[in-house]
Amino acid sequence: MGNLASRSFDPSTDLLDLKGKVAIVTGGNTGIGLATVRHLARAGAKVYLAARNESRATGAIAQLEHEGVEEGRVVWLKLDLSDPRDAKKSAEEFLKRENRLDILVNNAGLLQEPYTVGPDGVTSLSTVNYISPYVFTRTSLPLLQQTAKEPNSDVRIVNLTSIAHKFVPSSVKFDDVEDFNTTFSRTIYPSMIRYGHSKLMIIVWTKTLQRRLNADASAPITVTSVHPGGVDSFSHKLPFARLFKFLIGLAIAQPDVGAYNSAFAAAGKRIADDKKTYRGVYLESQPTGRVAAPNPVALNEELGEQLWKTTEAFLERIGV
């Protein structure tokens, strides 16, 4: 089903020509992130593969070059999302290297992990999945806006989320930073709801960021949140990997296909032809690039402004 649902999209024909364009894909050394890097590099972009581990990143780049991606087209950018300060440093390092940024794909994130509150008083899940991408984007924004002021620009920010955000209760609030640490202990599956909560914050932030960016018509930027769909990033770890890859592939997509929604949001021709329709939207993957209704909570503009205010207050407190 994952493969069949995406046959209406072909990255070799449905992406813009990205020659001369610069992109960043976070978490680009494996899975959907690596596949997104591949699609954008094949379309001609210079792609910064942002990842924490240098050896894994350079291994991924070597793999891409072995597949025929031009040498030097993909470069490593050190990025550690576990600390917002490091996320800021990474973006600042990028700003020293380039004078344009056309595409930012915030792909990296944690799936589910034990409930742990870090030294700044926020859970690791909320930090990695929301706060650090927020900081990385905020730090990169002046260059994105500068690029967007060029004639015929098509600057895009793509934030990966998950359909799991739809399971978060409507009572969710973001009045203070403790609301980022909600345990959801009274739900049936607390760890999945916590994950969905971090991904709901991504959608609420995406919509708020788009509204704020719309205020500057001289620097048009399209911001979308994307659910990639079910993706096989694990069958290679199983016994009888080849057999399981085949069986799993009947139900969900391989990473290359799983990245179609990210690639569509980052560089799809359809968005270029109708930018207004796609600004601030949430996309699901069946078929690729389908505008979908998020959790109704995400449409609450007051909640979005409160999330923004609480996030900024937190970052000010920790000196970011």
TrEMBL record:
GO-annotated molecular function: oxidoreductase activity
A Pfam short name: adh_short
Xref: Gene3D superfamilies: NAD(P)-binding Rossmann-like Domain
Superkingdom: Eukaryota
SUPFAM superfamilies, per the entry: NAD(P)-binding Rossmann-fold domains
UniProt entry keywords in alphabetical sequence: Oxidoreductase
InterPro entries hit by this protein: NAD(P)-bd_dom_sf (IPR036291), SDR_fam (IPR002347)
Family membership noted in the UniProt record: Belongs to the short-chain dehydrogenases/reductases (SDR) family.
Listed name of the protein: NAD-P-binding protein
Source organism: Cyclocybe aegerita (Black poplar mushroom)
